[in-house]
Specification:
periplasm, 2 domains, D-Maltodextrin-Binding Protein, domain 2, single chain, 346 residues, 11 strands, globular, alpha/beta, 46% helix
Length: 346
């Protein structure tokens, strides 16, 4: 059905014919897409986004598209393998973090540098624009459906708050990515990096004293019970960091769909989906902060002046990232300048 959507075609038939068609189509999907991600099924991203989005695709396609969601790596493998799984067809759609395969998707990873975040909605739109302008070749064999970030990370610690760089000295911290880890190490922290799914064991066993994460992760892993203090940048300051995410579809699977079903996918993806996911993450952030407050943990504010000192101290990390982009054939300075311009706009 090249020139008409299913909905238009059905509407033109008349009620007597349309109703049986809808019933038969709804009883058996024409296309089943397997969506794979690493978070537990109780995570808000699963319940408030993936399940809702899957239902929207089913409705928009009149039941022709069914999305089966596999949380917590139920299709096997580890989180760093998700991009390859979608490229190789092990799953049809995957939600993944570029930082889980460091330096492989450097343009997408740029927003994961320190202090490259305002809030999740605005930063997600900035990231999507940055990828459209500079990162089009990074996901060969895959069709990106959305790019987004979470809100800025906070420092969650067991024994004392972090209000200055001096407080980081000797602190064993799980870093969220390499570049943020480099910044924290520059302040004297002892940094380790492993996926968020392994962090509970690290905190429970005392391998680490704390972690750098947004509030939205807290409820799913009960981090409010494993830490007692949270240190957050003052309002108006850039966030400490935000990891970028990519929602990817197998390109051959997408191209193999009929014109009208590709149209359904197109209408449910793109920059507006990136904006929507970012906005949802801002909501998840507010909820997670409420969980920390309700548990009675202490929330402290890192002053703007201190954050500005940290930003200045992080400039070698940004310079190293520019050099890395240059090594990959990009104009690193232009990408970093454009990222900051997009973040500061509006």
């Amino acid at each position: 059905m090249t020139h008409m959507t299913r909905r238009t075609a059905l509407a033109s038939m008349g009620a007597a014919l349309a109703t049986p068609a809808l019933v038969s189509r709804a009883s058996a999907a024409e296309v089943t897409l397997r969506l794979h991600h690493f978070l537990p099924p109780v995570a808000p991203m699963h319940t408030s986004f993936f399940e809702v989005w899957a239902a929207e695709l089913a409705e928009a396609s009149e039941g022709a598209i069914e999305v089966q969601i596999f949380p917590a790596m139920q299709l096997g493998g580890k989180p760093p393998q998700l991009a390859d799984q979608v490229r190789n067809g092990i799953c049809d759609i995957a939600w993944t973090l570029p930082v889980y395969t460091p330096d492989r998707f450097p343009v997408a990873e740029t927003m994961s540098n320190p202090f490259m975040v305002t809030n999740a909605e605005k930063t997600s739109v900035a990231l999507h624009n940055l990828m459209d302008e500079f990162g089009g070749d990074e996901y060969r064999g895959m069709k990106p459906l959305a790019y987004h970030t979470h809100d800025g990370g906070k420092l969650h610690t067991r024994d004392a708050p972090v209000l200055s760089a001096a407080d980081l000295q000797g602190l064993k911290l799980r870093a969220p990515n390499q570049s943020t880890g480099d910044m924290l190490a520059g302040f004297g922290a002892e940094v380790v990096f492993f996926p968020v799914t392994e962090m509970v064991v690290g905190l429970s066993s005392g391998v680490i004293d704390g972690c750098c994460l947004p509030y939205e992760v807290v409820p799913a892993f009960k981090l409010q019970e494993l830490t007692s203090f949270t240190s957050e940048p003052a309002a108006g300051a850039r966030g400490l960091y935000a990891n970028s995410f990519s929602l990817l579809m197998n390109e051959a699977r997408y191209e193999g769909l009929s014109d009208d079903l590709r149209g359904v996918i197109d209408a449910a993806s793109g920059i507006e989906l990136s904006r929507r996911i970012g906005k949802q993450f801002d909501g998840f952030e507010a909820f997670g902060r409420g969980v920390v407050e309700k548990h009675g943990n202490t929330i402290e504010e890192i002053p703007v002046e201190e954050i500005n000192r940290w930003r200045e101290a992080a400039s070698p990390v940004h310079e190293a990232w520019i050099a890395k982009l240059n090594d990959r054939g990009h104009d690193g300075a232009a990408i970093m300048a454009r990222a900051n311009e997009l973040l500061d706009a509006g």
